Amino acid sequence: MEVGFLGLGIMGKAMSMNLLKHGFKVTVWNRTLSKCDELVEHGATVGETPAAVVKKCKYTIAMLSDPAAALAVVFEKDGVLDGICSGKGYIDMSTVDDETSTKISEAITAKGGSFLEAPVSGSKKPAEDGQLVILAAGEKALYEEAIPAFDIMGKKSFFLGPVGNGAKMKLVVNMVMGSMMNAFSEGLELADKSGLDPQTLLAVLDLGAISNPMFRLKGPTMIQGNYSPAFPLKHQQKDMRLALALGDENAVPMPVAAAANEAFKKARSMGLGDKDFSAVYETVRQFKPSSS
Ligand SMILES: NC(=O)C1=CN([C@@H]2O[C@H](COP(=O)(O)OP(=O)(O)OC[C@H]3O[C@@H](n4cnc5c(N)ncnc54)[C@H](OP(=O)(O)O)[C@@H]3O)[C@@H](O)[C@H]2O)C=CC1
Ligand SMILES: O=CCCC(=O)O
Asked: Which PANTHER family match (predicted)?
């Protein structure tokens, strides 16, 4: 099966690599061309533009940073729209808002193509291990066609109905995650400042009702001050911003998420946007480990 893949950042690289390793023929494109090299070493072909990739492949997947990137890759010259036609599908797995996704869907379908949004839960490691949770919405037939690829990239796929529902579900999930990360950071600092061992706090949390993989994975590295990016903080703040806009649209009060968004903005202002989102800890942290 020939699949196109646009966007080889942290997630796109891992996801397209998995497709290659499982026998898919993959044609890749990335704005910064050098990021294609490693994929080529594993058998990928490079398309010169998004349009060239779409022209070559029955369906094309995109994994791009934000709404501006998702729109640029579709609407700019030599973009997806210049290659799409009847019989071809476009699957955008980037985390964007429903307005962006709807705009892309309308443009693709106006040219006879089919569209699916399919943002994912799970980060770098689940992407490498094919353990993502896929939140698809849009054209059901394209969803069914893409299941073999989804089964490789993910551990579970949901079909959530019309375009927009996948984007909204993803924003709700990441809004909860970003708020939790801030509460967790405050807890680590409170433990430390009140004379408790943060490592013991991790052990206690892990045995109780709020035990979860995020605290288990991020806690030890946060204590070390290691923020090597799996999920860049600038993307988490983008998701908080988009989730708050969704709350605004639906008149849902979200004071906790709003405060969390401010903390992520503060972290960006401290130059931490390209670090892992757990670096939001630095906005409350006073004790610095000697290794940082
Ligand atoms: N990392 C994670 O844990 C997760 C991320 N996500 C979401 O997945 C998406 C990708 O995330 P991730 O891989 O971490 O991000 P990265 O920042 O690592 O990669 C972003 C990608 O978008 C491309 N890009 C950015 N701007 C443009 C543009 N204007 N035109 C064309 N391409 C552009 C980049 O190209 P270039 O290389 O040239 O900069 C790169 O390929 C985001 O929407 C994110 O929110 C979802 C789940 C988990
Ligand atoms: O969008 C990023 C999500 C990261 C995760 O689910 O661990």
From this structure: GLYOXYLATE_SUCCINIC SEMIALDEHYDE REDUCTASE 1, OXIDOREDUCTASE GLYR1-RELATED
